[in-house]
Amino acid sequence: METEKIVEKIKKIKAILGFVIVRNDGLLLESNFPPEINSKMLAVMAAAIVKSSIISSKELKIGEFSYTLLKASEGLYLCVEISPEIILGCLLGKKASLNQVLKTIQNLKNIYLGKNNLIL
Asked: In the chain, what are the domains?
């Protein structure tokens, strides 16, 4: 699945207000944030957040990394590793259903990785 197909599916998730799709080295591939938001910086931060979270999960021996969530007073910033090469960083409204967003992203991840197990 190419990044264009990921973008199509992510745009259908109404709770996602903005997103970046980045390589694991922080290179920005896609973004739908407005120009006043520095998408390149968000891309680098998403990659760093995921990398440090993966390292922390291993060091703490708490299992495989799933996602990292930044919760602020006006919203949520979710970082997910779609594949070992691709990371998704997305801004969610403060009233977003995190469970529903996570299920949808997990399904997207499974499709991207060629797995047949979708979560309903």
From this structure: 3-112 (3.30.450.30)
In the block, which residue shows the tokens 């896609």? 30
Q: Which amino acid is at 74?
A: E
- C-alpha count within 13 angstroms, C-beta hemisphere, residue 65: 21
Phi and psi of 41, rounded to 5°?
-70, -40
Parallel/antiparallel/unpaired status of strands 67-72 and 75-81: antiparallel
Instruction: Determine the Cα–Cα distance for residues 111 and 97; give it in Å rounded to an integer.
Output: 21
**H or E segment and range at residue 98:** helix 98-112
For the stretch 49-107, pLDDT in tens is 999 999 999 999 999 999 999 999 989 999 999 989 999 999 998 888 898 899 888 88
Type of residue found at 18: G
pTM of model > 0.90 = no
